[in-house]
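Researcher: Structure prediction, please.
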Amino acid sequence: MTQRTLKILFLGGGSIGAIYAFLLSRQNCTITIVVRSSFPVVSRHGYKLTSTTFGNTIYIPYRVISSPLDLSGDEIYDYIFITTKASSSSLPLQGYPVSPATTIVLIQNGIGVEAAYKAAYPDTPLLSGVAYIIASQPSPGEILQSGSVMSLHLGAFPPSSELQEHKDIVSRLTAAGLQTHLHPSILPQRWKKLLFNSCYATICAVTGLGTLAVAQMPGGLEMLLALGHEIRETAGAAGECEMSVEEIEEFFEVQTKGLDIVPSMLQDAQKGQEMEVEVLVRNVVKIAEKWGVEVPRLRAVCTILGGMNERFRMEREKKLLDGEGFRCGGGGGGGGGRLQAKLVIGC
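Model: Predicted structure follows.
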């Protein structure tokens, strides 16, 4: 049977969006990708992909745009992939053509990222995703992917066992070489990935150290374990994910032992950009409060990171007032000898 051509829009032209768009372009999908800071390069030359998994290639998307104004009002997409950072401001979908015939695929870190989209587009199917991949964009249009860890977990939101309509996109991603899993609920996967993003990434951002240095500093491993147990207790109390004490210890003492990367939250801090505090920490604290779980370390980290975000905001405003201008970076900076990681690893 002939495979139907899918029309797909990607919001987020950084490392994750570029790699997933490239993979789907090889599976009878017509790709339009929204690129902002890298638009001048990508619109003319496409992406230069360097990958330990797929080799080295130049990927020229079918269409590269910079805003919804570049689309006609009657365009309909089968899927809209959102691979931007979770922002505390407006939804990135505003202005883009969303219909009940479209499925939104939300690939972002954190907990509680789906609610705003479901409220804004109640009649549009929503797939929520958790990505495990080591990738970066050290310069506009240059995408690096390394390591053997590369998988994607997808689940319907709200949770549902009726998954037949989503199996086509999963099979295409799998056929393209991305290990893709479809779940009735994505919540357990989201909580498990917080073991990295709410523990390693947050302490890295606060200290300015990479993951290996954090784990090896005095009291570092103990802090990571304590944060991990606060997440475990919160997830269990909410009835959304059961993790054992042994799983937490294995994650930090075995699975991620020796890991030496710069998480995206630390990259944001180094560039003075807004960090994903709301979805990675504050929402966890709110859930803990609701269920009566004590999370003193997560609460302290949340306060410190919130203060850092406020300082970054004030510094950006000062630069604008001083006439220096300010341009947000586009997906990863140089990392010297250490790997700069965008959305990274897990259990």
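Model: Confidence is low (pLDDT under 50) at residues 326-347.
Researcher: Thanks, that helps.
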